[in-house]
UniProtKB/TrEMBL annotation:
<protein>
    <submittedName>
        <fullName>Uncharacterized protein</fullName>
    </submittedName>
</protein>
Length: 86
């Protein structure tokens, strides 16, 4: 399995999977209030009509809610992927 290249320093690739495009857009809007981001890209997800939305966040340009959260959430433990992630 090929791996996607990592985003550049200070950026994060976000994938949102939701039952409807509206739900995915609402989640993306919350993220954009905290971080600068690229234009979102959406794709169909699954046979039931779900939506997969992709966007890139610039974590070096954060709004106050993200700054506070980032400062208190730094962990020394290695992050673990979900069972369905590589």
């Amino acid at each position: 399995m090929e791996h996607e290249p990592l985003p550049s320093e200070g950026h994060a690739e976000v994938r949102i999977v939701a039952a409807t495009p509206e739900i995915a857009r609402r989640v993306a809007e919350v993220l954009r209030r905290c971080f600068a981001s690229t234009e979102q890209r959406s794709y169909p997800a699954g046979l039931e009509g779900g939506t997969r939305l992709h966007l890139t966040l610039d974590t070096t340009h954060t709004a106050e809610p993200a700054r506070s959260w980032l400062a208190t959430s730094r962990s020394t433990e290695q992050a673990h992927a979900h069972a369905d992630e590589v």
